[in-house]
Request: fold
Amino acid sequence: MTHSTEPLACSLANDNAAQQALEWADLGRHAVATERLEGGVAMTFRIDLADAVEDLAAREAECCGFLSLATTRNANTMRLEITSDHPDAYLVIEALAGTGPS
Reply:
């Protein structure tokens, strides 16, 4: 596996980063399924949350270039995959997905 040369850093200001972290925490409570992937996590949501998932994923992709965020819709659900080939990104991914240690 090749590792990303993208720096492991978020370009948001502290207040904006804190607000976005709260949005991730709220979104994570609505996941109907979460699974670990190689290099990341996949989360599944009800389709009525698709616009919110896509919006937050797009904003996260803008500020955290070391992450890959991909969404897929079907008739009933929205799947969000958060991955990275950066060796230290998994802790960030777990925090976004709410799957890290409590």
User: Anything to note?
Assistant: The chain has a mean pLDDT of 85.
